[in-house]
TrEMBL record:
GO molecular function: 3-dehydroquinate dehydratase activity
Source organism (scientific name): Flavobacterium terrigena
GO BP terms, alphabetized: amino acid biosynthetic process; aromatic amino acid family biosynthetic process; chorismate biosynthetic process; quinate catabolic process
Keyword Ion transport annotated: no
Protein name: 3-dehydroquinate dehydratase
Length: 137
């Protein structure tokens, strides 16, 4: 099973930014743990701070991969284009958020991704990604 984990803006700063919300672990070390935990899966990781690069990656893999785990960061709440892209591709997408977006600022309660996602996992820290992987098994 081939799966992509796709992270959006500022998630390259995990372990450094707002550790009270996002924790102390950087994503690369967490991704290595996921690969060890799920050795039978073909896991790929991509991160970009650029909306167009996220869309390009979704289009690149969105017709051939078995699934995509997407944390679009702040683009979740602003990008109609990413929402439209998810609607256009055939690979199922699980929307993931590390924090509970509903316990944060009101603008974070809206998602342009959720209506076209297979499911949404919110608020379990980095374990949100583990839960998303398990949902594909």
């Amino acid at each position: 099973m081939q799966l992509l984990i796709l992270n959006g803006p500022n998630l390259n700063l995990l372990g450094q930014r707002e550790t009270s919300i996002y924790g102390n672990q950087d994503f690369n070390s967490f991704f290595n743990e996921l690969k060890s935990q799920f050795p039978t899966l073909q896991l790929e990781y991509f991160q970009s701070n650029v909306e167009g690069e996220i869309i390009n990656k979704l289009q690149e893999v969105g017709f051939s991969y078995d699934g995509i785990i997407l944390n679009a960061g702040a683009y979740t709440h602003t990008s109609v284009a990413i929402g439209d892209c998810i609607k256009a591709i055939t690979s199922p997408v699980i929307e993931v958020h590390i924090s509970n977006t509903f316990s944060r600022e009101t603008f974070r309660h809206q998602s342009y991704i959720s209506p076209n996602a297979k499911g949404v996992i919110i608020g379990f820290g980095l374990q949100s990604y583990t839960l998303a992987l398990q949902s594909f098994l």
